[in-house]
Amino acid sequence: MSAVARQRFYPLIALMFALFAVIGFSRTFYFRFLTDLPPLTALMQLHGAVFTAWLLVFVAQTRLIAAHRVDLHMKFGIAAVVLAVLIVLVSFATMVVKSSVPGAHPFIHPSGLTGTQFTVVGLTSLATFAAFIALGVAFRRRAALHKRFMVLAMISVLTPPASRVLTMLGLREYWSYLVPVAPALFVAWCLIHDWRRHRTVHPVYAIGGVLIVASWPLRLVAGRSEWYQPIGEWIARVGAGV
Fold this sequence. Notes:
Mean pLDDT: 89
Shape: globular
Low-confidence stretches: 1-5
Number of strands: 0
């Protein structure tokens, strides 16, 4: 029975990640053609396509392990690494371009940050994602570590869909308080699963999960700090020159 629970958890949480992302981006990406929103730029379309491919591969990888097809899982792992690198590059490029859009500088996000200050949120998410992916690859032959690092990598990039879900619910003004709820709930799910399965919580989930949740207030503080201002301005200047 415990083996069945173990096999079901990762495919299930992967599906929940994908479902949450699709719901969040349903209006602005997946079903945008049904709205009166203007067409997306080529970069934004690429960003959405790459992330969608990542979701599909992530779900497929968990199902391959559940089906005991470790051989195929390892082969598809190469594609997953390539996609992860593309996500970081394309997401950074998207953030840079958006930070330089006319009117972005005086724009005040619901978090209270200006356009340039808000880039700290994207940078933090991408850095965390890249770090967990790198650790997942480094420990790819140690399944207990590998799978947990990959799940945490997925949790670390839930900000965009969470933001859009809040907008759909008319709760965008409470962004600072509610956006961290999504990653916190997924982290809690992982902790509960570990506890029920092993009667202890794996250090990867305990430490990594706490870092993801704790990073939220720190991001907002960092965005307003004097030391980050030159970084945000540099990102905007690079975007303006693209």
